[in-house]
Amino acid sequence: MIRLLADENLHSAISQGLREAGYEVGFVPHLGLGGCSDAEILAYADEHGLVVVSGDKDFGGLIEFGSLWGRGKVVLLRYRVLNIERAVTGILAALRREEATLTGPAPVVIVLSEGRYRVHRPESRSS
């Protein structure tokens, strides 16, 4: 099963909803990573086989377009208005549909927004 790492900005009710659905969810501050750089969090997750779940737009920018592209596995929340139930439902749906991708060896970024998600793989990035 996919194991998750909740970034410190992720609402605790989202983490709780994922736990209630049966997922193991670590929390960045509880693992001694509070205040660490995005690169350090991503490296920790990669080393421990975790998928980072974050709503941090800066982190998302580094993953999608910047210096962290092609590293790790990340689910980014891009909801205009955060609705906890909708976010949990969306994350769970993406985790189920993309399980093979998220448990495979290649890095990936899944971006969730209202009613949809998109998958970014390093090999699909245009230069």
Roughly what percent helix?
25-40%
Q: What's the total helix number?
A: 5
Instruction: Please state the overall shape, judged from the principal axes of the Cα atoms.
Output: globular
Q: How would you characterize the largest beta sheet?
A: 6 strands, mixed
CATH topology tier name: Rossmann fold
Please indicate the percent range of residues in DSSP E strands (runs of 2 or more): 15-25%
Structural class: alpha/beta
DSSP E strands, number: 6
Q: Give me the oligomer status.
A: single chain
How many domains, in number, for the residues?
Answer: 1
Q: Label the CATH architecture.
A: 3-Layer(aba) Sandwich
Strand order within the widest beta sheet: 2-1-3-4-5-6
How many whole angstroms does the radius of gyration measure? Answer: 13 Å
Please tell me about this protein's structure.
- Strand 1, helix 1 (12-20) and strand 2 form a beta-alpha-beta unit.
- The protein has a 6-stranded mixed beta sheet, with helices on both faces.
- It is of the alpha/beta class and 127 residues long.
- It has a single domain (3-124), classed as Rossmann fold, CATH 3.40.50.
- It is 36% helix and 23% strand.
